[in-house]
Every structure is written in structure tokens, then in C-alpha cells.
Model the fold of this input.
Amino acid sequence: MRNKVFLYDTTLRDGAQKEGISFSVEDKIKIAQKLDELGVHYIEGGWPGSNPKDISFFREMKGYSLKRAKMVAFGSTRKKNTKAETDTNLQELIRAGTSTVTIFGKSWDLQVKYALQTTLEENLRMIFESIRFLKSQGLEVIYDAEHFFDGFKANPRYALTTLEKAAEAGADNISLCDTNGGTLVEELQEIIREVKKRIKTSLGIHCHNDAELAVANSLTAVKLGIVLVQGTINGYGERCGNANLCSIIANLKLKMGVDCLTDKQLSHLTEVSRFVSEVANIVPRDEAPFVGLSAFAHKGGVHVSAVQKHPRTYEHISPEKVGNKRRILISELSGKSALLSKAKEFKIDMARDPKAVKKILSLLKDLEYKGYQFEGAEGSFEILLRKAKGEYPKFFDLEGFRVIVEKDKKGLLRSEATLKVKVGDLVEHTAAEGDGPVNALDNALRKALEKFYPDLKEMKLADFKVRVINAEAGTAAKVRVLIESRDEKDEWNTVGVSENIIEASWQALVDSIEYKLLKDK
Done:
């Protein structure tokens, strides 16, 4: 292992600037605790000088004890033409009560001229006096050299002078920021080499992803001796986001041999990624490297066969190292190997039944041609397999249903479903209302079945997606409905396809309920 590199997470501050994210104080506390469990060294909690929420967060965090991480308050250098000792922003940093603070200052003469609207000399004094004051308060000070790479390209002498002032004032770390995210790897290498000739203070890196190079630039910086790496979980951030700390951590540990987390901590990486997505109410990217649902998913028959013989044929690391898992997808591209592997996953023995395998492969291709998609509906696929094997119990039969959607004079919509189902020799006739026709059907079906299968009360629909398959057919087009359901233990997906959205929804809904009953049985 190489020397330690420190991980600096700014999800709660820079990541919160992503469009669509709004963390509550409670959200931020939960994420901070999760990041601490992961083993991150610094957690930037927010900017107490900019809003009441962050002031409240730092106040609340005083009641929590972090095991590994240092909580960091973020702010800016003093305002122009004022004293550091009386600057309200710097005072809020001190009141935050953290042992470490990070402040940013301008490295680019263009920013000094247009954003600060002050002189280059005053900007240097703002940097020096702010850091010196915070150091006099006994704080660890990280200085973010904002827009440093753009500043260096425009005026290298001045950009380096801003760093020298930060070092002279006693900054513990100077982090070089690619704030606009447009620096190429080769440019970054050359600039960091020049910086290291002049600056002996510990260096950090803070990259944005506007050219999709944030992770590459961060890893390159580490190769050049940078010891503190800033980023956000899942790369959340303004515009195109920040450097993705999930990818940085995995690459540092597994590819570069850098001691940033323990093996055990690394195995929680996927869990943390999905936890933050859930709290942020952002749908996780399936294709995200290392932690995405599809990161180790195999669909093509040749790939599946090879992976089963030796995982390294199509996997660059073992998924378990980052807490992820291998997935075998079922589609029209699947061959015998994929089918047998999936059946084994469901604890269904099909290896001794070649006729059933051949039949299912043919049926699968026919169904996908009609618009079904089983790679995202494994609940429906397991039901399909068990029916083909004759291992599927009949839980209920539909005798018929009717759905009424009515709009009254006030413009209010009302949906009502009535249905008859047969369980054994008993026929149950029920009616129920809902927010929409599918919700009404769901309520009516549960109402009919819960007296026979009380465990259905534990189940709920978590997501409902509709996809038009052949848009050229207009309103007569086929639709595919995917339903995600969950109970206290598991979650599963089911699918239905029809020209009638109610029928497609019914198919997916019935599969969802039957899968719950099958699973519990």
C-alpha cells in the first residue's frame, strides 16, 4: 500500500447544489453518520455563514459523536475592505464548533475583477488575513483555491502567488480546485508539477465533472503526490456534478494500492451509495461504475457462459469487494447458460429437463418480441419458470373485473373497481375505490384476498412505470407496465404488456401479488 490519502466528502454542501436535491437537517445528520461509518476522513457539513439550516445542522451535530471523521464547516475569505476579526462569515465558522474549517478564495484574476470587484492586492490580503485569523483560533484550516486551474492558465504568476499567501498564513492544506470542470488531464498534470516546485504545504484536489474528467483528474492528482481528495457520493453537485467519490475510493483502493479505507469499509461502498440516493430522493444510476445495479450485470449468452467459468472474463474486480453483486439478466439474448444460472438463483432445478429449457427459451423470445421485458421483472420471470416446471400453486382465479372512471361536475375524478375472484371453491365479490384505475384494482384485489392471505397486508407497491412500445400506433400502441413491490424483507418487479393499459397493469399487479404469496409459501 502507498502512503495514506485522505478522503474529503462534500456531499452535504457541494453535493446539495445538485438540481432536485434539498436535504433537511435530519437528512444531513443521517448521511454524516453513514459517511463516518464508511471511513471518510473529512465531512464538509455546510456553510453556516450562508443559511439558517446549516447553522442548525452544526448545532445539532454537537450532540453526535463521530468515530472516525472530522466534521468541517465551510465558508469564504473575509469580505473586501473589512477586518477578518469582525467578518460575520468567519465568526459563523468559529461558532460552528468544528476543529477543522475550509475557506475558499479566488485564484483567477478574472474572478477577482468581476466576481469580487476588487483589486488583485486586496484579494491577496483577504486570503492571508482570513487564514491567519482562523489559525489564531486553534483551527485546522483547509484552503480551497477556487478556479485555480483556470486562473493558472490565464495568469500563472498571480495564481501561484495566491497559494503562496495561503501557505504563508499557515494553511494546513491547500486544495486546488477545477471549479468550472473543464481542465484536461494533461493540463492538470503540468500545472500540479509547477505548483509543487513553489508550494511545500500539503496539497488537495477538488474537481468538477463538466468535461467528464473529474475522477480521472482526481486520480491523476494523487499520482502526482496530492494527499487530500475531495468529492461527493455518486458525483452529486451543481451542473454536471462533482468528482464521484465512490469511483475515486474504489480506484484508489483496488487499482492504485492507496490506503484510503479498510477492506471491510470498502465492502459497504454500494450500501452507502444507495443510502445517499434514497435520502436525496434521486433514482440511482444503474450504470454507475462499481456501485450501480448494472455494474456487474451480464445479459449476452456468451458473456454469461464465460463469467460462470471464470468471473474475470467479463469483470474487472470482484463485485463483493465494493458490496455489489453479480446479476444474470434474462432477455431474448439469453442462452441456455443464462437460463440455468437464473433458475439456480431461484432454487429451481432445470439442468435435468432440457425440453423445458428449450420450451422456455422459445417462449421467452416470443414474449420479448411482443414487448415483455424480464431483465427488469425477475418476479414475473420466476413465476414463468415455475409454471413451465409445473411447480406453481394456484392461489386464485379471476372470474372478471370492471373499472369505472368518473368525472363529476366539480372536475373531480373518481375510480372504482369491482371484481370476482375464486379461491378454492369460494368466490369473493368486492369493490373498492382508488386514486386511479390501477390503484382501485389493487385495493379491490387485496380486499378480496386478504382474508385468505393476511400476509398481503405487509406488501405495498413502491413504483409504477409505463412505457409505450410501438409509439407509431398512437393511442392504440402497446404499453409495458413495470411494477415494483416490496414488503418488510424484499423487493421485486413484475411486468405486463397489452394495448390496454388497464390490462397490462392487471397482469403486472397479479404477478406482483402472486410472487408475494409464492415467496411466503
Residues 48 and 55 are 5 Å apart (CA to CA). The chain has 18 helices and 16 strands.
